[in-house]
Amino acid sequence: MGASAAAFATGVALESPAWGAVVAPLAWSVALSRVCTGVHVPSDRRDRGVRAAP
């Protein structure tokens, strides 16, 4: 997911699980739209982790 959308959804879910269930699909759609428009590819996070490893 987009980092800020994921962070927001997580915070909401921790405070109110009912609202978290509403917000999580919206955050997921933000992440999916970024992949579909080519802003991110699914391997971005994996590759970033490999480069950051000592």
Describe the structure.
- Helix content is 80%, strand content 0%.
- With 54 residues, it is an all-alpha fold.
- It has one domain.
- The protein starts with a helix and ends with a helix.
- The model has no long low-confidence stretch (mean pLDDT 80).
Q: How is the secondary structure organized here?
A:
Layout: H1 3-15, H2 17-36, H3 43-52
Low-confidence stretches: none
End-to-end distance, in Å? Answer: 25 Å
Continuous helix count? 3
Count of discrete structural domains: 1
For the sheet with most strands, the description reads: none
> Strand portion, in percent?
under 5%
| Class based on secondary structure composition and strand pairing | mainly alpha
Order of helices and strands: HHH
- Mean pLDDT score: 80
Shape: flat
Rg over alpha carbons: 13 Å
Number of strands: 0
Helix content: over 70%
What kind of assembly state do the chains in view correspond to? Answer: single chain
